[in-house]
Amino acid sequence: MKTKNLNTGIAIITATLSLVLFNNFAFVSWNLQDQALENVHEASRVAHAKELLGKSYRGSMAQRLEGKKSLNQMIQVKVKNSLAPKFKAQSGSIARTVIAESKKYKLDPVFVLAVIKTESKFNPLAVGSAGEIGLMQIKPDTAEWIAKKFKLPWNGKKTLENPSANIRIGLAYMNYLRSSFKGRAVTYVSAYNMGPKNVRRLLSKNVTPAEYNNRVMKNYGELYAKISAPTAVLVAAN
């Protein structure tokens, strides 16, 4: 009888603990998924858009979205829609990283999405022909150098398979190139693809590389058009 009562007591305690753990886990999971997005830093976005577009900024979709408070939600919707099904659960953390790191380096987060689309088509596990890895297609040796320079976590090339870590390292590199080429967009964007030495070599011959920059800017314009469409706004609002 005592044994039966003891077993019953243990069963009750086990069930209670399981329920508590389940509820806590559910709360933590819900809390992470529902974590609020940081607002896009509007001044930085506008300033960088003007740097990228020059005179073409006037009348552009980038200008038309000035002051749009839901731009952060639009970015998350675009990220989620661009990811393969197995990665969609990470759309929130990816969007938060894009927005936060863009603010840190005074970049337009839509430009960041354009680079990601150009490099990997939003595939976190993409591997390039020269060994580039992840969303922003970074070579492990370049990533290790940047991680050390900017004091970012580095645990070998597998670090680049983590979308958020990949974006942080990629944008630190973009920031480095931007400062190296004194904010001249066509040069630092090109350098992200072909390396700063190759860009400087071409510039010394009075040749300005533009092919990669043109692809990024094409995606930049298309992304702005898509995220500002009425249907995108409606989805973001919900």
Automatic annotation (TrEMBL):
Gene3D superfamilies: 1.10.530.10
Cross-referenced Pfam families: SLT
Organism domain of life: Bacteria
Record-linked CDD domains: LT_Slt70-like
Domain (Transglycosylase SLT) ranges: 98-210
Coiled-coil stretches: none
Family: Belongs to the transglycosylase Slt family.
Protein's UniProt name: Lytic transglycosylase domain-containing protein
Organism the protein comes from: Bdellovibrio reynosensis
